[in-house]
Every structure is written in C-alpha cells, then in structure tokens.
Amino acid sequence: MTKKLNRIKVVLVEKGVSQTELAEVIGKSFSTINAYCANRQQPSLEVLALISDCLSVSMKDLIVDSTD
C-alpha cells in the first residue's frame, strides 16, 4: 500500500478547485499537478508554498500528519 505524503487532492476538493485551475494559477502542467495529487511525485517547498497561497491554506494543511 502506498503511503500518502500530501493532502493536495483533498484540499482541492474541499476548496472546489480543479487540478487544471491550480496548474494554470501556479504555472505548472496538469500532469505535474496530477502527479502531486496522486502522490506519485512531491512538490518542492517553493511549489508547496505557491499551492498553499493559491488555496488559502497553510503549508501544514497540505501535508499528511505522520500519525495518520
């Protein structure tokens, strides 16, 4: 079983923002955002900061607590 390392997909759903919209706003490709959402790839801290700003959440809210 793959361990989820981020909550980007969950937060996108909570905020009603599509992966395509996020990709356009932060200047990344849809496939890159999709890889983040599927936990196939992890964003750099700089990209995580862009995503948190775009979604108006803290960077911490985008990361799964290690106790999960």
Explain what you see.
- By secondary structure, the chain is mostly helical.
- α2 packs across α3.
- The chain has helices spanning 8-15, 19-26, 30-37, 45-55.
- The protein is 51% helix and 0% strand.
- It has four helices and no strands.
Low-confidence stretches: none
Order of helices and strands: HHHH
Count the DSSP helices. 4
Major pleated sheet: none
Structural class: mainly alpha
Instruction: Report the mean per-residue pLDDT as an integer.
Output: 91
Percentage of residues in strands:
under 5%
- In helices, the fraction of residues equals 40-55%
Shape: globular
Between the first and last Cα atoms, what is the distance in angstroms?
Answer: 14 Å
What integer value in Å does the Rg equal?
11 Å
Total E-strand runs: 0
Ordered list of secondary-structure elements with their pairings:
Layout: H1 8-15, H2 19-26, H3 30-37, H4 45-55
Short note summarizing the structure:
This protein has about 70 residues and is mostly helical. Helices cover about 50% and strands about 0% of the residues.
Protein traits:
68 residues, mainly alpha, 4 helices, globular
